[in-house]
Amino acid sequence: MNKLDKSNSSQAEIMLGNAAVARGAYEAGVKVTSAYPGTPSTEVSENMVKYKDEVYCEWAPNEKVAMEVVIGASQSGARAMTVMKHVGVNVAADPLFTIAYSGVNGGLVLFVADDPGIYSSQNEQDTRLVARAGMVPVIEPSDSEEARIFTKRAFELSEKYDTPVIVRSTTRLSHSQGLVNPEPRVEPPNKPYVRDVAKNVMVPMNARPRHLAVEERMKRLANDSNSLDLHKVTYSDEKILVKNADGAGLSEMKVGVITSGIPYQYVREGLPGASILKLGMVHPLPRRLIEEFASKVDRLYIFEELEPFVEEQVRSWGIDCIGKEIFSIRGEYSIQIIKKEILGEKVEFDTPEVVPGRPPILCPGCSHRSAYSVMKKLKLHAAGDIGCYTLGAFAPLNVMDTCVCMGSSISTLHGMEKAQGREYIKDWVAVIGDSTFLHTGVNSLMNMTYNDATGTVVILDNSTTGMTGHQHHPGTGVSLMGDPAYVIDIAAVCRSMGVNYVYEIDAYDLDLLEKTLKEEVARDAVSVIIVKSPCALLKDFVPKGKCAVIADKCVKCGLCIEPACPAMRKQKDGLIEIDQVACNGCGLCKDLCKFDAISFTPN
Question: So what CATH class is 367-532?
Fold first, then answer.
């Protein structure tokens, strides 16, 4: 048994992996958490706020700000944690890389959720590679209970080695549930603040010796990792029939597998007779422990999702192993992969040939659909951004043309104009959400006005951070703690940066929206159109009423269903039907109908 395992069944609870991380941070005595929501990490902060009587929790405008907030808390002597998804680490990289040089005072933990399989992201980035570049240690739990325990240990390691520590998760761990044994909160006293300019002010003359200190720290961590109780080794004398290296036939041998995180669960179930080295700390690696483990098996496999992070280091030490030559570099792993690639069994991966199509689509009553229907009518192209509105790229809306990262839409439009001239973008707009605008769009708009640009920016303001589950942001008036907060006036912010043409338009005022879009894309200036309507899935959203088709007026032209509202469907006879349960009464279909064949009944 792993000596970190607990046995306290009377108190055991089933917890989501992310909830267990929050519990571990609470038990460790964390004082401050700051985060920006991003699937699959969001639920950590949403569970963290359950402990708000003892922990300060906040949503920050972006991950860089969140990282800097917890750095400040740590430097003052308190334990602090920030939370983000893997691409958020890119935004937070600047302060992260520097605080690795400076070190910490109170324990400082960065929880990161990677997304193998790209279920909710724009790439399949591996945070371990970023950690290696930043010289930051990484620990990786494999179930909910370890998520709780490892998070607690991360604070201890942070203070012991004077470093930020990354706790790495993946979608499968973050969104799976497991048995957790909660323990009481132990709140260590704040560490005293001691002014130390050489350590905490990273100008070149101070950064040079700190770089050497970081290198020494990583060497010490690598050495100490060999005896770290986060690792778990299970030896077996059983011999297993496995595929030969050339893929032809099977041979009986003692098999060893080095793995970590969720893949450990697949190895444990798929190869019960194998020796297993489950790494708890994946950076830096415990070389002596790995060498000892490798010496006791006939064949060594490295079973890790995404990049060959462990494999490359193991090979560099002259240890023969099998990894990415048989295992995929992309997507999630499974027991089926083990059975096929190691045991040579025939397994079925594919889904049935006939599967009902289910394209991504905006929700019933979504105001983004209204805005895109007008843009489509005007044959506009949109430089896009990250959010629910990204679905405007797909049929039948087909408006969004590009999507790179948070805040990129405005800068993309700016780049097009500077490269191709002002006439080129007369049929282009930048589309961005309210939360994303406050995340990094502000900077991009500032760049447009500063650099004498032309272009129309459409801010789709639905009063929430929609795609990650309706979190508040600086424009909603409520903090993560549930307290009233100052409401950022997006229109006023735009005007303050020199935008002279700023409009706030109801998303369902189609005529005004069409008129304004026509005028602004033709204007030789920067303009901002804020399209406003709350998300129809917000808890306090009250539908205006219900729409219904008047059968004897319907000519079955299908114009009302072109925006693809899921509450509407065409019957076999061509007549349109509106689902009264799904309908949110937005009225878009009624506005599009030229034959008054749709009625509206207010609530």
Answer: alpha beta
